[in-house]
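Dear colleagues,

For the upcoming journal club I promised to circulate an example of a predicted protein-ligand complex. I picked one with pyridoxal-5'-phosphate because it came up in last month's discussion. The inputs are reproduced below in full, followed by the predicted structure.
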Amino acid sequence: MDAALPSQARASEPSFAELLAARPWLSAAPDVGLMLDGVPLASLAREHGTPLWVYADSVLTARYRALATALGAAKLPARIHFALKANDTLALLRRLAALGAGADVVSVGEYEAARRSGFAPEAIVFSGVGKTDAEIATALAGGIGQINVESAEELARVAAIAARLGLRAPVALRVNPDVDAGTHAKITTGKADNKFGIPFDRIVPLYEQAAGTPSLRPVGLAVHIGSQILTLEPYRRAYGRVADLVRTLLAHGLPVERIDVGGGLGIPYGTEPAPLPAAFAAALQQAFGAFRLPLILEPGRWLVGPAGLLLSRVVLQKQGAARRFVVLDAGMNDLLRPALYEAWHGIVPVAAGRLHAPVAPADVVGPVCETGDTFARQRPLPDFALGDLVAILDAGAYGSVMSSTYNLRPRAAAVLIEGGTARLVRRRQTIDELLAHDVD
Ligand SMILES: *Cc1c(COP(=O)(O)O)cnc(C)c1O
């Protein structure tokens, strides 16, 4: 829940030392200041400019392996399908594909990105409440592994498109379990009044109907109750309901090949506790273990969130009537989460001197002409000078993907650190590129 609270509401702010201690991939040295995976952030800013997304392959890889290991230890036949909407940087996607991940996509753009970065079509799941006919046709013609259908209306459309293409569409029905994920209202998806999924009591007849439709191959059920979920209780409730449905389907003699358990696993944005992979795997084992069916997981944030940060320069520090403002060269157009969800992100100075200097409350804001362009309110921070660098932590998920060009601000560049060296994986957009689509 913490990450969803307004910044002002966090009872006590973790110190820089506490934030770093909880993130061993970050360290600080007296000469070079803050480093990610041993690479000084100041040198990256010099070489590539700011704002800059900085990702660490080692963190991403370690998290993928930790989750896979926990699933294996729980004897769950499971495949991890990365939810591309959390981060669509092709270099990261390539890494995940190489690690053996599948993909979860919600648009034809994400489908193309997944295909181009090495995911086999069978290893791609297509989710989302508003797939167009063209998107469904592209995915089916490409041999997609599973379409998660979110309504009776969509099931009929998938059936018609598959029939026209002479194919049998592999479909899973997405259950709306009517469970409150206990997260921010804007990222809750599993309640009866959310737009997502098919009401619980309509699943069995619809599944039967799908099984009797020649152009459809129902492969199982899917569920996704929300994002940034920090306790397992909502999962247990939702999975219990899905398990009941699977039992009913099997009792009706209907084929169930797999269960898609969705994503949503939360990460600590400060130093709060979050569920560990082993505990999540145990919850899955408890709900679904007896079926001995393959599971599909769709984590996004959990895999990439901690693996990235947003590096930004202080443009100026100004003293308002009542507050000190630290103005950055990154804005809400780069990282929208604080403005959209009042999300809390750790903000840590890069220079070693600043890390150990006395702190006083400051509002950290961007340059965009909106009051909502605020990264933190009354955050204990040192005195800053023009050009100082700060790292906005845990920005690897729902960061660059949500960035826009509002205020005609070009989209930021990204680098990936692999084996101790960083390489550019997304060029900074130029003003010419930004204006190139206009016809005047
Ligand atoms: C957003 C989404 C995910 C990933 O959610 P995270 O909170 O990033 O793990 C997975 N599945 C579906 C259907 C989604 O919409």
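Two points we might discuss: Confidence is low (pLDDT under 50) at residues 1-9. The chain has 14 helices and 21 strands.

See you all on Thursday,
B. R.
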